[in-house]
């Protein structure tokens, strides 16, 4: 759950990148780190095995938007994809405000994708959260590889609810920024609906709009091919 610091007028929201092992969660977060302007990011922290697979989590703080009188910061996390780290996944999911599910587009990874998505739904339910009422974006990763399933097949198997989804190639950054923008919009919309974040102030006559899209454009580099 997001936290609010009334003295600092700051709201901190937590977004978790979830998915099976080797689907590209850590690579995605690294590309976000490379994309965000240094003035608007903290240090990325990772705890990984010798094989460079996430053991506990990755963490990246990002300042995203100022809404009303509040500054909004995102805490971006990944979880380990390996099935035997489920206790860690549960721990990292606690207090999440939104999830990006990073699916491996390769045909041979579909069973792992299904298992991980079911695990996400189960772990959220343990926290009293229904996935169909929770900010969620699907990321179809590894679109730059061979033997990948079509987007239509991925949607049919993994996205029957029709939540926003994006084709990505995290290794080169393609689509990562769009995914981040969209989950941020959904999370802030949800926090506003819960009255955690105040609604945006009406624009002054003649003033340029300063919505989320404009704020993200200010804070992010555009390095995607």
From TrEMBL:
<dbReference type="GO" id="GO:0003924">
    <property type="term" value="F:GTPase activity"/>
</dbReference>
<dbReference type="InterPro" id="IPR027417">
    <property type="entry name" value="P-loop_NTPase"/>
</dbReference>
<dbReference type="GO" id="GO:0005525">
    <property type="term" value="F:GTP binding"/>
</dbReference>
<feature type="region of interest" description="Disordered">
    <location>
        <begin position="196"/>
        <end position="225"/>
    </location>
</feature>
<keyword id="KW-0547">Nucleotide-binding</keyword>
<protein>
    <submittedName>
        <fullName>GTP-binding protein</fullName>
    </submittedName>
</protein>
<dbReference type="InterPro" id="IPR006689">
    <property type="entry name" value="Small_GTPase_ARF/SAR"/>
</dbReference>
<dbReference type="Pfam" id="PF00025">
    <property type="entry name" value="Arf"/>
</dbReference>
<keyword id="KW-0342">GTP-binding</keyword>
<feature type="compositionally biased region" description="Low complexity">
    <location>
        <begin position="204"/>
        <end position="216"/>
    </location>
</feature>
<dbReference type="InterPro" id="IPR052705">
    <property type="entry name" value="Gliding_Motility_GTPase"/>
</dbReference>
């Amino acid at each position: 759950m997001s936290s609010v610091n009334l003295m600092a007028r700051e709201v901190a929201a937590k977004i978790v990148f979830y998915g099976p092992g080797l689907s590209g969660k850590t690579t995605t977060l690294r590309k976000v780190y490379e994309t965000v302007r240094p003035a608007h990011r903290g240090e990325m922290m990772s705890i990984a095995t010798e094989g460079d697979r996430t053991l506990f989590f990755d963490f990246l703080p990002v300042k995203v938007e100022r809404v009303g009188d509040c500054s909004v910061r995102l805490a971006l996390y990944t979880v380990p994809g390996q099935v035997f780290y489920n206790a860690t996944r549960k721990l990292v999911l606690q207090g999440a405000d939104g999830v990006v599910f990073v699916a491996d587009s390769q045909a041979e990874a579909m069973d792992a994708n299904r298992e991980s998505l079911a695990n996400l739904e189960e772990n959220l339910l343990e926290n009293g959260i229904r996935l169909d009422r929770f900010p969620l974006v699907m990321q179809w990763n590894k679109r730059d590889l061979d033997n990948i399933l079509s987007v239509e097949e991925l949607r049919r198997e993994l996205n029957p609810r029709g939540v926003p989804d994006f084709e990505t190639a995290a290794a080169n950054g393609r689509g990562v920024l769009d995914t981040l923008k969209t989950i941020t919009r959904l999370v802030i919309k949800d926090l506003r609906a819960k009255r955690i974040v105040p609604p945006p102030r009406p624009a002054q006559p003649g003033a340029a709009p300063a919505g989320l899209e404009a704020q993200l454009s200010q804070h992010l580099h555009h390095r995607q091919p």
